[in-house]
Amino acid sequence: MKSFNTEPEHPAAESGDVYAKSDPTKNVDDDGREKRTGTWLTASAHIVTAVIGSGVLSLSWAIAQLGWIAGLLILVIFSFITYFTSTMLADCYRAPDPVTGKRNYTYMDVVRSYLGGRKVQLCGVAQYGNLIGITVGYTITASISLVAIGKANCFHDKGHHADCTLSSYPYMAAFGVIQIILSQIPNFHKLSFLSIMAAVMSFTYATIGIGLAIATVAGGKVGKTNMTGTVVGVDVTATQKIWRSFQAVGDIAFAYAYATVLIEIQDTLKSSPPENKSMKRASLVGVSTTTFFYVLCGCLGYAAFGNKAPGDFLTDFGFYEPFWLIDFANACIAFHLIGAYQVFAQPIFQFVEKICHRNWPDNKFITSEYSVNIPFLGKFNISIFRLVWRTAYVVISTVVAMIFPFFNAILGLIGAASFWPLTVYFPVEMHIAQTKVKKHSPRWIGLKVLCWVCLIVSLLAAAGSIAGLISSVKTYKPFRTIHE
To answer: Please, what's the b/e burial string for 397-434 (b: 16 or more CB within 10 A of its CB; e: otherwise)?
Structure first.
């Protein structure tokens, strides 16, 4: 095992990416870093992995709360909003010129270049708070899918009304162990293979869900649907209708959001063609693909289950048979979340490591790496600091998931708090600053209206999430089995 030092010696290290130091014998990019090799295709895979989560299977519930008209309309509207703001954010990767300007490696760097001041700190709180919440939420969601496999087999053997209670904690622990290993992947640039695998998994389980919904509709066993969704006095109370509608709008809006990792994804792209053009193409492909699956899953799921649509028609057993297909779909969800966890965790890892390298550049524990040969994988560089810090993060996030099994309700609140600043406000404000949009011009007014509308959506969704959270807290017991 060979030890070598990675102390910053060039501008690339100052930006915090101490793992991507360029070899003098290799080609480098304009910032002195090792030449990037990402394409719009790999970026699309990152986007799909980040956006299409198991939440796609809960969109039938969202449409059930809103009805055919409002549900479909909101799905389409937020797909356009997400794509529109993502193109503005992609143009801000370089500053001041979107093609020839200086690179920004993180979302906070972008905000610092264009807006500065306290908005940089606001961006950091919103981005990293959201990322941390997602990693905890994914641990819970993966365990739910794995528990569903055991329950599906139990129901098949003993009947649909059998007691098939299972604990999710062993599955959370197993998921954490896998993430400890994968977290040693040095940076975002090395995640392409994992994102492609995760994207394939997301397509697979979404397609299975669509197929099962089509089979149900074709068989004639469908639920009652209507234009305005759940009926007050029949399906829900008036208060439930209001809060659930707010929550459903938020679920749809947040389901498209990937601004938290857009800049990090764009930083993996090669510079020819220009990164902003490749990223816009990747965004178009990613958002279009996502919308296609969202509409199919949401609409067909609602058609199959009607106003009684479950929160997730695979893990909540909207379907029981064929059990082996349900097992396979839930396994695909778990595999997808394994990759998606890393997509959202890598920016957290690199943010902390950047600060540590900047503050303690002479500390050997932080800066030293060791080269080891791993069978079948070849040479791999291991940092003791990276091993300790990233392992500690995964362990803590796993323990939090175990303590707060209702954390997904909290995640809805975190999503509401971060959606507006990260997906709408900052991209719009930076676009105005970059292109010097004239104040009170029609374009300026239109952009400001968009900001205010999305802020209202976030506030309403936050209110709905708080109502759901209060309901969860009332029945909360630490470390209890939640999959009964």
So the answer is: bbebbbebbbbbbbbbbbbbbbbbbbbbbbbbbbbbbb
